[in-house]
Amino acid sequence: MAPRVYLDNVITSGWVLKDLQPPAEMTAVEYLYELHNAGTIKRVTSKMSGIEQARTTDLQKRATLAASANLVSVVQNDHRLLGFANLDYGSRGFISYPLIDDIVEPALFEQLTKNAGLKDADAKHVMYAVANDCHYFVTLDTRDLLPKRSAIELICPQLKIMRPTEAVVAIRTA
Predict the structure, then answer these.
(1) How far apart are CA 77 and CA 73, in angstroms?
(2) Which one, of 98, 97, 127, 96, lies nearest residue 111 by Cα?
(3) Which strands sit side by side in the sheet containing 160-162, from one edge to the other?
(4) Cα 85 from Cα 121, distance rounded (Å)
(5) What angle do CA 126, 67, 48 make, to 5 degrees?
(6) Among 37, 41, 3, 35, which residue's Cα sits nearest to residue 135?
(7) Contact 127, 103 (CB under 8 A)
(8) H or E element in which residue 73 lies
(9) Are 8 and 137 in contact (CB under 8 A)?
(10) Helices and strands (H and E) in the chain: how many
């Protein structure tokens, strides 16, 4: 079975916009896409990437990102059904709608935010990667994720947080 590689929003956006720095990281991301196309790995992201990309203030960049949104598979396990709310209007009708939560593993999310010190959006990315059996989490987030990778990997030992160049080396040697 091909290893699952979760691409953080920084990576999916950078690949589309071709603006990842340094150039070696851009080359590594392009290689990861080639590995996916060859069937060697399965690259995925989550709905969080699309949500974050939609906040881009540059309209042209936002349009480019939106047009490329379907190029990376989105993980399926990104919400949980809590139940249904029902409104009975008697003779005027009935309404039923689902109650959905995007925190699929509450205990893990709490550990990531409290113990590892991640912001909610970053914690969701990591939680979705774990909940969808990803092996590698590829990012260039040098503010939050990479500096906290040891703490994250203590909580999620099945997931390796890596730069694109590190992921390429790990996949080649696996």
Answers:
(1) 12
(2) 127
(3) 73-74, 42-45, 4-7, 136-138, 160-162
(4) 27
(5) 15
(6) 3
(7) yes
(8) strand 73-74
(9) yes
(10) 8, 7
Q: Using CA atoms, how far apart are residues 149 and 44, in angstroms rounded to an integer?
A: 19
Could you give the count of Cα atoms lying within 13 Å of 9 in the half-sphere of its Cβ? Answer: 21
pLDDT tens column, 86-100: 999 999 999 999 999
Joined together, the tokens standing for residue 164 give 């694109």
Tokens of 108: 């893990």
pLDDT tens digits, one per residue of 23-71: 999 999 999 999 999 999 999 999 999 999 999 999 999 999 999 988 8
104 token code pair: 């699929």
Which are the contacts of 5, defined by CB distance < 8 A and separation ≥ 6?
32, 36, 41, 42, 43, 44, 134, 135, 136, 138, 167, 171
